[in-house]
């Protein structure tokens, strides 16, 4: 039995739960300057499970305040739109796709993705990019792994075993088994979920930034390297991929400049990870 081809993957995307409508709305509103607190709160309140996790995380993040947060609108007012959107996106993904089996556990994947998202937000602040778009792209950059595992669990476990036994990168193992990697699969899933094309393109480009014209793809690539270097998420078999000097140059970033933000990145990552319980 052979693994599904890249062209066959869209039919397997139906095997994954769809994104909650509120998450789709937030994705669409990332560039909508007209989106206000009342409108955002209204959409969030349509999903009680997300509201419950939002309030739990918001109260954890805002633990130093004298008042408790009892509503999504209050959470927006106390913590700000950027922080709340991050909490909702991260919690919705981590809880909705909480796959656990002896062969594949999604928790390390989400912790790593949260680490990349945190790095991407900090780097976006330094380079003038849309911080929420950067965070979302970082959070979603590895979703192709979910689709590949769903499409063919046996073959994906084979790729994971090959990575460990031969001490090679996950990308190399995936290509050896499937003929494509999770970046290509992730673009397929992003399009199946009707995510913005820009996000789909970033997902596809994050391991090959030199072949892409996407500046956000460059940002997520550098964020991925940084997350691995700081071991955010404490992934098993953590490897630091090669850093594209071209991507850094195009972003106007240098490693000495990035180093100055290590402590802030680690503090932010720990804060949101603990708040989300992942």
Concise account of the structure shown:
The protein has 278 residues and is mainly α.
Characteristic terms for this protein:
single chain; 278 residues; Hypothetical protein af1432
Which architecture name of the largest domain does CATH use?
A: Orthogonal Bundle
CATH class of the largest domain: Mainly Alpha
**H/I helix tally:** 17
The assigned structural class equals mainly alpha
Name the shape in a single word: globular
Question: How many structural domains?
Answer: 2
Order of helices and strands: HHHHHHHHHHHHHHHHH
- CATH evolutionary superfamily of the largest domain: Hypothetical protein af1432
Percent helix, as a range, is: 55-70%
Sheet-strand content, in percent, reads under 5%
Radius of gyration: 18 Å
Low-confidence runs: none
Mean pLDDT value? 86
Task: Give the distance, in angstroms, between the N- and C-terminal Cα atoms.
Answer: 35 Å
Instruction: Assign the CATH topology of the largest domain.
Output: Hypothetical protein af1432
For the largest beta-sheet, the strand count, sense and barrel status come to:
none
Number of strands: 0
Topology:
Elements lengths: L8 H4 L8 H9 L7 H8 L3 H14 L10 H8 L1 H16 L9 H22 L3 H10 L3 H8 L1 H14 L3 H9 L3 H11 L4 H9 L9 H16 L14 H7 L3 H5 L2 H15 L2
Could you walk me through the main structural features you see in this protein, from its secondary elements to its overall organization?
There is one protein chain. The protein is mostly helical. It has two domains: 18-96, no CATH class; 99-278, Hypothetical protein af1432 (Orthogonal Bundle), CATH 1.10.3210.10. It is built from 17 helices and no strands. The radius of gyration is 18 Å and the shape is globular. It starts with 8 loop residues before the first helix and ends with a helix. The mean pLDDT is 86.
């Amino acid at each position: 039995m052979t693994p599904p081809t890249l062209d066959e993957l869209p039919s397997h995307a139906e095997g994954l739960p769809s994104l909650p409508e509120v998450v789709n709305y937030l994705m669409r509103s990332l560039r909508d300057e007209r989106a206000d607190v009342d409108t955002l709160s209204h959409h969030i309140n349509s999903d009680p499970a997300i509201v419950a996790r939002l309030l739990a995380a918001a109260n954890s993040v805002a633990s130093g305040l004298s008042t408790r947060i009892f509503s999504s609108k209050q959470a927006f007012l106390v913590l700000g739109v950027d922080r709340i959107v991050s909490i909702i996106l991260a919690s919705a993904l981590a809880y909705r796709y909480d796959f656990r089996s002896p062969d594949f556990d999604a928790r390390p994947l989400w912790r790593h993705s949260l680490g990349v998202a945190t790095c991407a937000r900090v780097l976006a602040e330094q380079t003038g990019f849309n911080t929420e778009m950067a965070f979302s792209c970082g959070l979603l950059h590895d979703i192709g792994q979910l689709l590949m595992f769903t499409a063919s669990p046996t073959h994906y476990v084979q790729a994971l075993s090959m990575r460990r036994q031969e001490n090679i990168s996950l990308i190399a193992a995936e290509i050896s088994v499937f003929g494509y990697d999770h970046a290509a699969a992730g673009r397929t899933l992003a399009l199946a979920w009707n995510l913005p094309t820009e996000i789909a393109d970033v997902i596809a480009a994050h391991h090959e930034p030199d072949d892409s014209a996407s500046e956000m793809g460059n940002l997520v690539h550098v964020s991925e390297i940084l997350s691995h270097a700081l071991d955010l998420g404490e992934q098993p078999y953590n490897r630091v991929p090669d850093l594209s000097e071209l991507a850094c140059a195009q972003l106007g970033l240098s490693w000495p400049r990035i180093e100055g933000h290590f402590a802030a990145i680690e503090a932010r990552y720990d804060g949101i990870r603990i708040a989300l319980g992942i």
